[in-house]
């Protein structure tokens, strides 16, 4: 009896275990929600394609200031009143003497005007030479006056046969010789006056004064010693190199009538400095070199820019933006709508039934936050701008803000 009870209990346990081992039927997977994306319509705008280059600013005029006469330097832009050298003994022989030495009133690094006094060389030796030549001229003029009187008397005596022809000829020759001497002395006076003027070294142009290379008290040599430099600052040049492919592209478009020849018309360009956003300065091309550098394949191009604010100075790094097309109607989409995969650049275009398709594109210039699309998108088509990672070609999307 006890054995049968145990058997019955075992059978009940096996039945219960069998019931528990049966698994419930699998539940159906929930449907994936339609992804929501942001979109924008492709628009059109009249634009000009630009290309960017790098260059350096340069002065329109740059002059090395040299001494044109030799002598000891009395004043310079660097010399203070207490350091200025005075001549040992001012010349006071006549009214033409420059015993009052003019003052140099400009400093290094300042803007100067044409004619401003920059340096003063000791004028005394040149004043003395000028006075000596003037004295010789006055003496020669006095001798000429007497010779003319002698010639007049000889002429009267010759009419009365009271003198010989030889004596008359000598009187004529004396007058001619003195006239030649006077012309020579007048040239000497002019030269000495010029040398005296050259002791006052003046700026030949308007511009920015550079560092003083020779200070007061030093001996300077004529046409040899460089005293300083002056560079013009308004307007200012910018030199930049254009690569060979760009030159060829531009010439092709020029032959097709799309763009104008930079050598025959003014082509506007824009400039930005290293610390500036965009290209705030406007100028124009005024020179294209006649050769291409065979070592680099670049062609030198020069632009000119107004610089009335003085923000530009020679030697600065500059970014240049030059036009490469005439104005045309372009298709643009937001730059953030453009994706990149192994096949290249693409956008996702929303079509019928809110299904997207992949479009390979050919990009143009970037204008603000928009990108020019040369091929692949038509005006008015809708492209996905956000959520590209959530969609695949052919999948359905829900436009942001649309009702479910």
From TrEMBL:
Keywords: Coiled coil. Residues 101-227 form the Multidrug resistance protein MdtA-like barrel-sandwich hybrid domain. Its main location: other. Residues 130-195 form a coiled coil. The keyword Cell inner membrane does not apply. It comes from the Bacteria. This is Efflux RND transporter periplasmic adaptor subunit. It comes from Novipirellula rosea. The lineage of its organism: Bacteria, Pseudomonadati, Planctomycetota, Planctomycetia, Pirellulales.
């Amino acid at each position: 009896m006890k054995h049968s009870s145990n058997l019955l209990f075992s059978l009940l346990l096996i039945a219960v275990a069998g019931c528990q081992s049966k698994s419930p039927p699998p539940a159906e997977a929930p449907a994936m929600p339609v992804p929501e994306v942001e979109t924008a319509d492709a628009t059109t705008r009249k634009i000009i394609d630009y290309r960017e280059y790098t260059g350096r600013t340069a002065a329109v005029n740059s002059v090395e200031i040299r001494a044109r006469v030799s002598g000891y330097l009395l004043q310079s832009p660097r010399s203070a009143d207490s350091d200025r050298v005075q001549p040992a003994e001012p010349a006071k022989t006549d009214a033409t003497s420059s015993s009052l030495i003019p003052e140099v009133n400009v400093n290094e690094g300042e803007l100067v005007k044409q004619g401003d006094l920059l340096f003063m060389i000791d004028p005394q030796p040149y004043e003395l030479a000028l006075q000596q030549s003037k004295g010789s001229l006055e003496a020669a003029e006095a001798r000429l006056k007497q010779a003319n009187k002698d010639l007049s008397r000889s002429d009267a005596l010759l009419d009365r046969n009271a003198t010989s022809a030889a004596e008359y000829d000598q009187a004529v020759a004396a007058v001619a010789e003195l006239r030649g001497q006077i012309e020579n002395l007048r040239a000497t006076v002019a030269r000495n006056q010029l040398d005296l003027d050259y002791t006052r070294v003046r700026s030949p142009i308007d511009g920015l004064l550079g560092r003083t290379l020779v200070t007061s008290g030093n001996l300077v040599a004529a046409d040899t010693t460089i005293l300083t430099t002056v560079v013009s600052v308004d307007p200012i040049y910018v030199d930049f190199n254009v690569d060979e492919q760009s030159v060829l592209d531009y010439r092709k478009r020029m032959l097709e009538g799309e763009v104008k020849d930079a050598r025959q018309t003014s082509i506007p360009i824009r400039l930005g400095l290293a610390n500036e956003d965009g290209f705030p300065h406007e100028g124009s091309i005024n020179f294209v070199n006649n050769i291409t550098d065979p070592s680099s394949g670049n062609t030198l191009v020069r632009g000119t820019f107004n610089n009335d604010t003085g923000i530009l100075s020679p030697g600065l790094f500059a970014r240049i933006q030059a036009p490469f097309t005439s104005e045309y109607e372009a298709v643009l989409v937001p730059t953030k709508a453009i994706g990149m995969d192994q096949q290249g650049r693409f956008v996702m275009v929303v079509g019928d039934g809110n299904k997207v398709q992949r479009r390979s594109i050919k990009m143009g210039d970037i204008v603000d936050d928009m990108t020019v699309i040369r091929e692949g998108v038509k005006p008015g088509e809708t492209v996905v701008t956000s959520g590209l990672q959530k969609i695949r070609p052919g999948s359905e999307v829900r436009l942001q803000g649309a009702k479910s």
